[in-house]
Amino acid sequence: MAEIGQWNTLVALEESDRGLLLDGGEHGKILAPSRYLPEDAEPGEEFKVFVYPDSEDRLIATTEQPLAQVGEFACLEVLSVHPRAGAFLDWGLAKDLLLPYAEQLGPVRAGQRVVVAVALDERSNRVIATMRTHRHLDRSRPDYHEKQAVDLLIAERTPLGFNAIVNQRHMGLLYHTDLAAPLQIGESMEGYVRAVRPDGKIDLGLDRTGYGRVKTLGDDILEALRNGGGYLAMGDKSPPEEIRQVFGTSKKAFKQALGALYKQRRIRFEGTGIRLEDGAMGSPAPGS
User: Fold this and answer.
1) Tens place of pLDDT for every residue, the chain, 288 residues?
2) Whether the Cβ atoms of residue 153 and residue 75 lie closer than 8 Å to each other
3) Which of 38, 180, 235, 266 is deepest in the core (most CB within 10 A)?
4) Strands (DSSP E) along the chain, which ranges?
5) CATH code of the domain occupying 149-205
6) Running DSSP on this structure, what letter comes out for residue 134?
7) Which sequence spans correspond to the domains of the chain?
8) Cα–Cα distance, 151 to 190 (Å, whole number)
9) CA-derived radius of gyration, the chain
10) Which option is the CATH number for 7-62: 1.20.1250.20, 2.40.50.140, 3.40.605.10, 3.40.50.620?
């Protein structure tokens, strides 16, 4: 049976004056308009199509690529706002995606980008958007491991940091203290799992952390010190933006690296910067 709001592989049953009629199972025959099909398409062939209701709520099959399908999350642009129905979003298809007022967390305006889940309204069989993303997250315990690379969609700002949707399944947190600068809601980026807590909450980072990361960053700091004649005008009080620009890492990771080098007696703190200890000018950081 064809799944509404998702990609399907369907068999063409017969020709129509508007295209081909595909086998939608319990949904009956679904029209695939000629403009979406190869010129030599004919009954008996299989086609990978996206199935959704058209402007008259009839199911239609298209080969156009939506920005998200049912069960996925995306950041979509508001095209217009209807006084009664809600907002209409651009999701890459001919028919815009409705974000009903009941599924909004606050007023939205044309041109705004909003993070939504794409869902199927089972009462009407219509595909809709909802800003109530938490309802559509995977409730099973996350099975990620420490330092695992994951895909992130920045969903919302919180007092602690930014909530991010992880691999289109779970919600995790990027802490303000680990970020060089604020993130933009709707940004997509790669991140890393720092920890999965006993309660299932996920701590995230934008760079790999742990001892292996500190050793590599320690080497970078030592190299910068040697290139600067043994002194670097940066330290644990340096602003996160400067640290990110120079070393491409968070202030927390930078401070961890400084702490490790200090304990190894490779550096000392001097004023607002750090100085290479005597004897450390030509040797690599231990373990590198």
Assistant:
1) 899 999 999 999 999 999 999 999 999 999 999 999 999 999 999 999 999 998 888 999 999 999 999 999 999 999 999 999 999 999 999 999 999 999 999 999 999 999 999 999 988 889 999 999 999 999 999 999 998 999 999 999 998 899 999 999 999 999 887 787 788 999 999 999 999 998 999 999 988 754 444 446 888 899 899 999 999 999 989 999 899 888 888 888 888 889 888 888 889 999 889 999 876 555 545 444
2) yes
3) 266
4) 7-16, 19-23, 29-33, 46-53, 59-62, 73-82, 86-90, 97-100, 113-121, 126-130, 149-157, 161-166, 170-175, 188-196, 202-205, 231-232, 267-270, 273-276
5) 2.40.50.140
6) G
7) 7-62, 73-135, 149-205, 211-276
8) 5
9) 26
10) 2.40.50.140
Q: What are phi and psi of 271, to 5 degrees?
A: 65, -130
Amino acid at 221: I
- Name the one residue in this structure whose structure tokens are 């742990």: 210
